Amino acid sequence: MDLGAFALSIITNLLSSVISEGTNYSALPFFQRRKIERRIEDATAEVVEPLLPFLAHEGISEDKQHRLIETCVEELRPLTKKPEQLFQGSLNGQKIFDDLYTNRDLPQVVIEDGLKDVYTLLCPRIATLLCKIPVAVKDWESEAWSENFRRLDEITSQLRTLFNKVDELAAAPSRDADATLTVVRRTLAQKIWLEL
Asked: 14, 80 in Cβ contact below 8 A?
């Protein structure tokens, strides 16, 4: 697998696991989930894409690059199970990284591969993504709820208008009322079905 595809895939999976555990993701409509997935991929690509030339320029073999990215993801994965650690790190990737390694050494594979410096640059960037994406998803959920409530408000307003017309028709002569009521019902039913 190409390094770019590998990095994008493994980091996106990490972020997706946080989102699916922290939200009611599976209950969202298909296209809303798809939009979220695309935004996650785009945000991940913005971080991963500039790193690949940097890693290549540093002369790091592709095998070591794979291990480096995999190690970053595996070291951050426990944070997806305990998001309170993200908040303790003030949702700041560098602070989370520093907290993660205050009482322990960097992973052995990183030390053996001689990639300490690169790891200390890469891991905080992925941790920052881990902090920001779920927060964004919560915002997206809020936007969806706002849109749903706005639509319900519109339907409520239309129903009020209908009820007012029905009240007016009750006072009008019966022939005119029947014809007008039939037209109003058809129009309103069509309009409500189109909006839903």
From this structure: yes
Tokens of 103: 């009482």
Tokens of 36: 């979220």
List of residues 6+ apart from 111 with CB closer than 8 A: 105
**Rounded distance between C-alpha atoms, residue 92 and residue 109, angstroms:** 25
Please name which of 71, 95, 76, 83 lies closest in space to residue 19, comparing C-alpha atoms: 83
Residue 147's Cβ-count burial label (10 Å; 0-12, 13-18, 19+) is exposed
Q: How far apart are CA 166 and CA 163, in angstroms?
A: 5
d(CA 47, CA 76): 16
Question: Does the predicted model carry a pTM greater than 0.70?
Answer: no
Give the pLDDT confidence of 7-41 residue by residue, as tens digits.
889 988 888 777 766 556 677 788 888 887 888 88
